[in-house]
Amino acid sequence: MEGTPTTEDTTSLAAVLRALRERAGLSQEELARRAGLSTHAVSALERGTRTRPYPHTLRALSAALSLPEADRSRLIASVPPRARPARAASDAATARPRDLPVPTTALLGRDEDVRRVGRLLAEHRLVTLSGTGGVGKTRLALAVAADVRDRYADGVTLVELAPLMEPSAVLPAVADAVEATRGVGRSVAEDVVERVRGQHLLLVLDNLEHLLDAAPEVAALIEAAPDLTVLATSRAPLRVRGETEVAVEPLGLPSATTSTAASPAARLLLERAGAVSPGWGTDPAEEAAVAATCVRLAGLPLALELAAARARLLDPATLLTRLDTALREGPRDLPARQRTMRATLDWSHGLLGEDEQRLLRLLGVFVGGFTLADLEDVVARTGAPAGSSVALLESLVEHSLVVTAPGGTRFRMLEPVAQYARVLLVEAGEWEAAATAHAAHFLALAEATGPRYRDEGQVAALARIDPEHANLTAAAERMLAGGDVEGAARTAWALWLYWWLRGHHGHGRRLAEAVLARGGMADDVHARAALAAATMCFAMDDVDAALHWWQDAHLHSTGNPVIDSNSVAGIGLAALARGELVTAREQFTAALDLAARGGEESEWTWALAHIWLGTVALLLGDPDEAVRRVEAGLASARRRGDRLASYIALYNLFQVELARGEHARARRHLEEGLRLSTETGDQANLAYLLDALATIEAAEGTVSRVPLLVGAAQGIRETIGSRGYGYYRPDPDVLAAAEAAARQRLGTDRYDDALDAGRALSPEQAAHLALGGHTA
Ligand SMILES: Nc1ncnc2c1ncn2[C@@H]1O[C@H](COP(=O)(O)OP(=O)(O)O)[C@@H](O)[C@H]1O
Ligand SMILES: [Mg+2]
């Protein structure tokens, strides 16, 4: 007997650990001794007062209990997921693509499928939902993911693959989605493995069908990361070892045993039709036509939705006759369901006016949706009259060919429709012109937004670009593929600060380096691409590569002070990162002069060069000079409303003031920096500031919050990797001393409990704690 049944949650870490310990016949003391932990730590875990042990603590416990693989997984799975990092900048920026979208309509007829796939996922690590476009794979995958989410300690990450054009882009997209940190000299696959190893994660790869060459990489990833599970959707199975395929069937049809109204296919048809024409098909006399329509459309949800969209004008009998004729004429060379889907799309398309048809085709050029304003501009760039786009788009929405995102400001097509539109666009010979117009529009958007990352428009610029990142990437890749290397280079230059602030370093680096590998650009364009590549490399702590590209940018300089000041300052940053302080000072000083010649456009670099000179001065033991330099940079940043340069400056001022024992000032500056970086959603910076706050509280003699703050910083770094701030040079001994003092004063048990509580905080909670918990 395994103890008495209780009503307590048996899947919590506390309950799982207790059960495993008791099964091993160990007392808490014995387990603690074997695992090299304190008895308090084991007891706190079993009481549920400590919930987020370090991965190495879990490993030690597993080893001490000699757990087999399945129990080890269960123990790991019982750790609650970390709150997902959400950008605090604005609502728009908060919507991370990895958060599962919540459908606005009810899921019909899939209860058994959801359960079955959920069961399969418990036993197999790669499950593929296969089936023709429009059969409901994505919808089912989302429902399954939501259903099993709680089983995965590290949650569910959705990777939308439809926007990708190359199989080689799959792993990088996964790397971005799981926020893998780029390691020097490592492959992207290794970066991902490094990130997800030990994580109990469900990765949903939606729309893998056009990228099947990436399937072996996905299989290899699963082999290398034993706690990773993948749920993929694809028209065709991946055909790799370890794959379990679930062929998604269309919705259940009316039959001898299922009445029309109770069958999922008919419910879908009636619900969608009833939304545009209340009561449609509910007359008993119409039942046969409704049932026959479902059968004719093979229960394919998308086909049913397209048919239902015509319910305003067509009663069930007429709809059936029209569909019947159209489907009989459908393309013959395809498998049955695909033929039905294609014929339904052809039918729906054939009912559109010429202008609507032209617009539908053009929409095939967008990736990841679009706004009305983007659409109008792209239409205008193709030379077509733009005036009527609103009415035409409205009609496409009415016909279920375009769907609106919640909030109603963005539009997109379901993937089978998007693919259909792309085929039509190519067949009409319009692809080239459309892609050119699309690329020109998004390059213009990137270039109009680029300067805003350096002034008070930062937060708005981030929010504007966030939803368009897939369009921007597609634009750059198409320019690159089409030979417009300079266009792609300009996109990289316009976007690098966006990538920096959003942590898309690996992505940005790949694009910029692909551009540079193609070469053949005018010197100043080449130099800009090299600057973009350099900063991304620097953000990834690859200082050697960063230096290479900064020097390359310098070599290609044509005397433009913006380019020169950036490349010279960059060379200084590489020196600073390597501790070559005198070289760094020379370079920053030279960068200052160059930036001063560049006028307004390089004032940003001018301000940062000042701030970095301050960092060097502090490290060289001249705090007065440091303050002078940093304050000059800060004044410029404040004048321009530039949060980023402001908080970099404030962090440096803090370092000086802490060293000088000016605690009140130090704290004021730190808190201002915290507020500003919360506004841009800069979590790497937040982690530094939390550590900094811990050091100052210790210096002030109040150690009670030190473990909480340090834990919160650790938690953030675990989630995002340490990123970007190679020029923040806090003295590690100061933090270590603060931690030691706190541990000594609070006692190890209290310290570790608080550290654990800090590690469980979300970035928002951590920022709130840091800002709110103190009265100066
Ligand atoms: N079980 C279902 N209940 C309600 N609507 C569904 C269901 N399955 C699919 N749909 C709808 O049908 C359309 C196509 O489904 P989707 O999952 O996108 O297909 P696929 O991914 O196979 O191409 C979507 O609008 C989706 O919301
Ligand atoms: Mg899909």
Plain-language structure description:
This protein has about 775 residues and is mainly alpha-helical. It has six domains: about 15-75, lambda repressor-like DNA-binding domains (434 Repressor (Amino-terminal Domain)); about 110-245, P-loop containing nucleotide triphosphate hydrolases (Rossmann fold, 3-Layer(aba) Sandwich); about 260-350; about 355-430, Winged helix-like DNA-binding domain superfamily/Winged helix DNA-binding domain (Arc Repressor Mutant, subunit A, Orthogonal Bundle), CATH 1.10.10.10; about 440-610, Tetratricopeptide repeat domain (Serine Threonine Protein Phosphatase 5, Tetratricopeptide repeat), CATH 1.25.40.10; about 665-770, no CATH class. It has 38 helices and eight strands. The chain is globular. The two termini are about 60 Å apart. Residues about 1-5 and about 85-100 have low confidence and may be disordered. The structure holds adenosine-5'-diphosphate and magnesium ion. Adenosine-5'-diphosphate binds near residues 109, 135 and 136.
Concise structural overview:
With 776 residues, the chain is mainly alpha-helical. Strand 3, helix 11 and strand 4 (228-234) form a beta-alpha-beta unit.
